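Why do we care about 3D structure at all? Because function follows from shape, and shape follows, mostly, from sequence. That is the central idea of this module. The next example makes it concrete: a single protein chain, its amino acid sequence, and then its structure expressed as tokens.
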Amino acid sequence: MQVVYTILDTLYYGMLQPLFLGIRDVLDFVFLGILSALSVPPSGQVVIVAICTVGFAFCLRRWLKVEVREKAFREKFTVQKAERDTIAIIPDPRSRDALYTSADQSIDEDFNTYLAQHYFRYVLIYLLPLFLVMAWLNSSLDEHVLPVVSGQAYLFLLPSKPFGMEGVSVTLLFLLSYIASLIVGFQIKKRCLSVRSKAK
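And the structure:
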């Protein structure tokens, strides 16, 4: 067991940790460094990063061909339902029930597979980038860095302290910006699809 721990420590400290630190340094330079040079405040940096994260999620969604896969499943499901409905014309009750059972099992298996793949893509496209970027932002703009950059432990303070909140943290602003960007992105996408369908 000690050998396994040694191998895992070597993999993490020798490969994964330097890789993660290198990626963090690149992101710090590309986003936070350039935006800071352009005099963008930390709150603006967080909003821009959230918008870019949503853009990356939509690009990943397109690369994984989510719409194509969902359309293919709907078409296959419709065909399976139509084939199942034709079983009703079989006069023998036993044969009809057996075929119904077989068709239902096939439809259920395909639907469960689609559902598992759907949630996996959801996690991969939306949640994984969300948590990874949030972890990066919290490590680059945490409470130890913000006082140096902006003079306070929050992106900005809330004088009225609603719900006992002294200020808006990196995590809160990023989450709100990410959700708002997702809503706007889906609305724009919906309108674009509507325009395309009308054009056809």
